[in-house]
């Protein structure tokens, strides 16, 4: 049992259950999809650079806009966040891994399987084209085969997200080091905890909605078919009951990142920690109460619109509390300006701008003008790019040394910040006005002479700035990981929380001994007390580790085969017909689905019947990290 | 970050703001309202914007001060800043003040929400219009006048117009920025709202709910007319008749009429009372300013408009992807017939 199974190279990555490696897998896959979504965004901006431009036609444009939204939300933003959450949460709470390492690996492979299903649609009859919101009946009877890939891709990757969220919840509840009470947890862990709670309640709504949509498309049911007594508004309710909390699932962890980065680079503890925690909880709670503000123009009547308007406005209060607490964290501090802190500092005015347009949008009569125009596009990009993406960049520069053991170049980093920051504002600020001047969103073209040319031109030029910033970041990664580049120290930023108390990158078991947590900002407290490192809470002993396993990958391959087969049901018959193949495409589809689900079930059986107790790392195998005075 | 950098950062944005605010098209811009609904909406936009600009400025002032005053200075390495836990008084201040600001915003918001939801009176001579959306065109029915038109909605100025919204296929959304906000056309459910135009002019309308590949080309016009002009338009629509066979003077129009009867009439009614066609009703087509939601008919250049109309009939799919009009190649309508057809279409005017 103490025999460690060791894989190397690719097999190591395919079988890993180490939260840090899974985190890196999430980051790499998320970055790849971020680039895909970015290319789609650039195509959109180039098409709209001039009025009546014919770079992209209406059909391709709808596919691109749908894939841009879906990819950025589900395949880029969520996984990159999950990557940071995976690596950092266990380190911040002093744990050796997440609660369910196997489930963690499964979550990643399912997300990747879903992402691939979505993106192969480009080569199999066209991508989904009904918008990332997939409103019925456009997404049922009036769109191509692409929506099948949307339904099944999101279904598969949604399972991955859901089990990932549950895993984080259990990890944070059960795996905290001695002394790490809830009210001593770093804000990133807190906000990830709350976001995971939102995942637990929001994603089942998406799962149900997608299942109903699939039934309408595949099996001819009529949940959303008004001709047969269904209701088209039902889908919008289900989608936004998921979709609005989804925004908070994305932005709350970003709030957490900003809280960490600002406190560290101000050399101060977070101002109003308790208020910050409760504000985050309140935002998470209210996030479930406001979905109808996406539907003010649906015609639900003045009572519903008024109630949801006031509830939506209420969210501004806890959000404001957070903003002012960040400002007062910096107040009286010693603010250092490096790339991580620049992104966090740039986040504040940018996110405030996104937040205040959110309040403006909560006014239903005004929303009758804003709704589905570029004003809304500007608003949610201020929140998701100006908020979330700035937060993710801050996190990348802040935690890069911890995750990868290398320092990113500050010079290139600052170039990234300034190009991305200016590019961002140039892209999206004019869009507020484009919306008010009469430009609806999801338009593949617009007419000349209606006052829309200048704003669109500036917007496209700004987008080029953002692209340059992104490429500088990639270049930075390449440069920093050349052989002989600087190795990161354990604590490069004079950090405050537990992750900075161990080496960069951390050993596979994270903490040689579970740390004893004596307050908020544990490491900082110990440093102030004159200790070099955190006091251990247990004697040095053998460390129990989970075994690597290939089963999660195969489970996901099974669902990938099943999902892809079902997604092919509209496209494959055409292919067979064109190629003159006699076989029934429907049979192929259902056999594929059966085989795929069979593989997954067999993997589940193996997992259930085969007991794997993991292995132990012996005391004499533990790294000697040169720390003194911690031998128990 | 120094003060001048902040100024420098916001200067270009400000410039852009001013530039853009100056150049909206009056027939399309929500910032240039010409009716009570759009005015109420704009005043709420301005109220919320003012409150929000105030909030933003408060944040920016503190933000700028903090960044200048508390940046790390050389020689501070050994000083540890005071680790402040928080401050109850401040927390209460920045909780209560936003709540008060939101109450100021919420009261007119709720009031206007109810005002704009007013439904047509049961009795009396309220002006009613039914808007039925289709992929990718609009039908406008006047139930009290017994007429139907498409693509160009005529309304009288200075009067509340009660609109009901429906759709025949997917969800569309009816938006005329300069005179009203928008509301969705949902298949299977009817929506009501009202609008009013104070100025007699032609406004641009847009579909704002993604409805397919030609979503961006599902435009319409709202022609607001002085009440007496509107009345005479209604009257001439009610009296509109196709050119009677015996009255046709030009040979081309006679041929065009035949071509129309063979190829077009099954989808495009030219009876101004017939609703629910497969394609737009073309009664009064000769007077319309634009066609297919896409092409303008400039009065100074009728020749090029005719060329556009012809190539539209030949290859509608090329201009509006996924629209339902079939192609009419030369094998079906010869060049000569096409010329005649266009001539005939122009003859469909209201007298």
Model description:
The complex is a heterodimer of chains A (632) and B (351). Chain A is an all-alpha fold and 632 residues long. Chain A is 64% helix and 1% strand. The radius of gyration of chain A is 25 Å and the shape is globular. The relative contact order of chain A is 0.11. Mean pLDDT of chain A is 94; it is low at 627-632. The model of chain B has no long low-confidence stretch (mean pLDDT 89). In chain B, strand 1 and strand 2 form a beta hairpin. In chain B, helix 2 (36-69) packs antiparallel against helix 3 (88-116) and helix 5 packs across helix 8. Chains A and B meet through helix 3, helix 7, helix 8, helix 9 and helix 10 of A and helix 1, helix 2, helix 3, strand 7 and strand 8 of B.
Individual helix count of chain A = 19
Order of helix and strand elements from N to C terminus of chain B:
HHHEEEEEEEEEEHHEEHHH
Summed over residues and divided by their number, the pLDDT of chain A gives a mean of: 94
Helix content range of the residues of chain B, please? 25-40%
């Amino acid at each position: 049992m103490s025999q460690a199974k060791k894989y190397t190279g690719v097999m190591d990555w395919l079988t890993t259950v180490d939260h840090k490696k899974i985190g890196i897998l999430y980051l790499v896959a998320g970055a790849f999809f971020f680039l895909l979504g970015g290319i789609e965004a650039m195509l959109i901006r180039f098409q709209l650079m001039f009025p009546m431009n014919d770079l992209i036609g209406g059909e391709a444009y709808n596919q691109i806009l749908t894939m841009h939204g879906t990819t950025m939300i589900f395949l880029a933003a969520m996984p990159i966040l999950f990557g940071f959450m995976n690596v950092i949460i266990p380190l911040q709470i002093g744990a050796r891994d997440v609660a369910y390492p196997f489930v963690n690996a499964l979550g990643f492979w399912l997300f990747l399987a879903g992402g691939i299903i979505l993106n192969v649609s480009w080569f199999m009859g066209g991508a989904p084209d009904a918008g990332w919101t997939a409103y019925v009946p456009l997404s049922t009877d009036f769109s191509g085969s692409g929506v099948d890939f949307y339904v099944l891709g999101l279904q598969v990757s949604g399972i991955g997200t859901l089990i990932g969220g549950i895993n984080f919840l259990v990890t944070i509840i059960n795996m905290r080091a001695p002394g790490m009470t809830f009210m001593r947890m770093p804000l990133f862990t807190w906000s990830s905890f709350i976001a995971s709670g939102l995942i637990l309640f929001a994603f089942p709504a998406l799962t149900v909605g997608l299942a109903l949509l699939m039934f309408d498309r595949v099996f001819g049911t009529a949940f959303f078919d008004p001709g047969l007594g269904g209701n088209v508004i039902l889908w919008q309710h289900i989608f936004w009951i998921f979709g609005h909390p989804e925004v908070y699932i994305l932005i709350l962890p970003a709030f957490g990142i900003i809280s960490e980065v600002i406190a560290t680079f101000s050399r101060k503890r977070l101002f109003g920690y308790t208020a910050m925690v409760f504000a985050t909880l309140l935002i998470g709670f209210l996030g479930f109460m406001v979905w109808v503000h996406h539907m003010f123009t649906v015609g639900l009547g003045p009572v519903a619109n008024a109630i949801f308007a006031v509830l939506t406005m209420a969210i501004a209060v806890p959000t404001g509390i957070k903003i002012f607490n960040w400002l007062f964290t910096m107040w009286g501090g010693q603010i250092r300006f490096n790339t991580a802190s620049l992104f966090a500092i740039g986040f504040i005015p940018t996110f405030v701008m996104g937040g205040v347009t959110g309040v403006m949008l909560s006014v239903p009569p005004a929303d009758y003008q804003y709704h589905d125009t570029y004003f809304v596009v500007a608003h949610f990009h201020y929140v998701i790019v100006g908020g979330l993406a700035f937060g993710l960049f801050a996190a990348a520069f802040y935690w890069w040394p911890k995750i990868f053991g290398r320092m990113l170049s500050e010079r290139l980093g600052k170039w990234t910040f300034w190009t991305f920051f200016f590019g961002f504002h140039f892209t999206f600020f004019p869009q507020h006005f484009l919306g008010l001047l009469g430009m609806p969103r999801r338009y593949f073209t617009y007419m000349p002479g209606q006052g829309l040319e200048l704003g669109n031109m500036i917007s496209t030029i700004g987008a080029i700035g953002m692209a340059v910033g992104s490429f500088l970041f990639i270049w930075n990664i390449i440069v920093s990981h050349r052989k002989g580049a600087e190795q990161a120290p354990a604590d490069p930023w004079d950090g405050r929380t537990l992750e900075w108390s161990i080496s960069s990158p951390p050993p596979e078991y994270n903490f040689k001994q579970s740390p004893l947590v004596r307050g908020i900002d544990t490491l900082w407290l110990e440093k102030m007390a004159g200790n070099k490192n955190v006091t251990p809470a247990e004697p040095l002993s053998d460390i129990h580790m989970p075994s690597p396993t290939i089963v999660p990958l195969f489970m996901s391959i099974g669902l990938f085969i099943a999902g892809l087969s079902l997604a092919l049901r509209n496209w494959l018959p055409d292919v067979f017909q064109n190629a003159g193949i006699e076989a029934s495409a429907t049979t192929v589809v259902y056999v594929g689905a059966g085989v795929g689900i069979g593989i997954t079930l067999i993997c589940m059986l193996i997992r259930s019947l085969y007991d794997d107790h993991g292995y132990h790392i012996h005391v004499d195998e533990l790294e000697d990290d040169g720390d003194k005075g911690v031998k128990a | 970050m120094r003060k001048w950098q902040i100024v420098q950062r916001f200067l270009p944005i400000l410039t852009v703001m001013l530039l853009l605010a100056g150049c909206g098209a009056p027939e399309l811009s929500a910032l240039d309202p010409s009716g009570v609904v759009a005015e109420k909406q704009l005043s709420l936009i301005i109220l919320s914007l003012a409150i929000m600009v105030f909030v933003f400025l408060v944040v920016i002032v503190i933000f700028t001060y903090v960044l200048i005053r508390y940046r790390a200075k050389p020689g501070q390495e050994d000083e540890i800043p005071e680790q402040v836990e928080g401050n109850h008084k401040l927390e209460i201040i920045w909780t209560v003040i936003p709540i008060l600001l939101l109450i100021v915003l919420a009261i007119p918001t709720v009031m206007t929400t109810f005002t704009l939801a007013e439904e047509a009176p049961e009795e009396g001579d309220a002006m009613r219009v039914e808007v039925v959306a289709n992929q990718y065109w609009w039908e406008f029915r006047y139930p009290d006048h017994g007429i139907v038109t498409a693509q160009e909605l005529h309304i009288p100025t200075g009067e509340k117009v009660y609109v009901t919204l429906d759709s025949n296929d997917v969800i569309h959304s009816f938006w005329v920025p300069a005179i009203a906000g928008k509301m969705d056309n949902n298949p299977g459910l009817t929506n009501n709202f009202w609008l009013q135009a104070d100025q007699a002019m032609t406004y641009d309308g847009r579909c704002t709910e993604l409805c397919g590949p030609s979503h961006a080309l599902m435009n319409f016009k709202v022609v607001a007319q002085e009440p007496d002009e509107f009345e005479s338009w209604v009257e001439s629509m009610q009296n509109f008749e196709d050119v009677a066979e015996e009255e046709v003077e030009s040979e081309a129009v006679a041929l065009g009429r035949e071509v129309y009867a063979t190829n077009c009439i099954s989808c495009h009614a030219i009876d101004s009372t017939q609703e629910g066609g497969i394609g737009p009703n073309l009664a009064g087509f000769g007077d319309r300013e634009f066609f297919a939601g896409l092409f303008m008919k400039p009065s100074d250049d009728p020749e090029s408009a005719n060329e556009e109309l012809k190539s539209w009939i030949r290859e509608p799919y090329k201009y509006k992807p996924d629209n339902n009009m079939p192609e009419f190649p030369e094998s079906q309508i010869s060049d000569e017939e096409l010329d005649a057809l266009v001539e005939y279409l122009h003859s469909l005017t209201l007298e």
